[in-house]
Amino acid sequence: MANCLDVAAYILEKKQELTTIKLQKLVYYSQAWSLVWDEAPLFAEPIQAWANGPVVPSLFAKHRGQFKVSIIEDGNSSNLSADEKETIDSVLKTYGDKSAQWLVALTHLEKPWLDARAGCPDGSSCNTEITQSAMAEYYSGL
């Protein structure tokens, strides 16, 4: 199985340079739609319900302190299968031209993030996991 860094590396190969917030949201949506379309996760690392939307902490550790990124150290897109790349390409076609703030706002309206943040005050830190089952259930209903 590929990891979240491989997914991020592939996204950056396609989009060149992104803000870290936008990269996080595109990785999140790639995972969510893979769970629906492929009935399998792209990566095993957990996603947490942070104040600015879903975040993969292990990916965050790689870009911490940066506003924009064009490469993710240790990410290797060749670890992704053709089907996985096709799923990510579909996500990029749908969400790739949206702004980071638009994607943050969208995640804030969706049940997986909202449920994981239940009880966390607005803007406060929260490390509750957004489970794969919550993502699969919500996005399969769309």
Structure, described:
This protein is mainly α and 142 residues long. It has one domain (4-140). The protein contains 7 helices and 5 strands. A 3-stranded antiparallel beta sheet has the order 3-2-5. Strands 1-4 form a two-stranded antiparallel ribbon. The longest helix is centred in the first third of the chain and has 18 residues, at 20-37.
Largest sheet: 3 strands, antiparallel
**Tally of distinct domains:** 1
Say what oligomer this is.
single chain
Helix content: 40-55%
What shape does the CA trace take? Answer: globular
Strand order, largest beta sheet: 3-2-5
According to DSSP, the number of beta strands is 5
- Order of SSEs: HEHEEHEHHHEH
How much is the radius of gyration in Å?
A: 14 Å
The whole-number mean of residue pLDDT values reads 97
Strand portion, in percent?
Answer: 5-15%
Describe the secondary structure blueprint for this structure.
Elements: H1 4-15, E1 18-19, H2 20-37, E2 47-50, E3 53-55, H3 57-63, E4 68-69, H4 82-95, H5 100-109, H6 111-116, E5 129-130, H7 132-140
Antiparallel strand pairs: 1-4, 2-3, 2-5
Key attributes of the depicted protein:
54% helix; single chain; mainly alpha; globular; two-stranded antiparallel ribbon; 142 residues; three-stranded antiparallel sheet
Short description:
With about 140 residues, the chain is mainly alpha-helical. It has seven helices and five strands. The strands form two sheets. A three-stranded antiparallel sheet has the order 3-2-5.
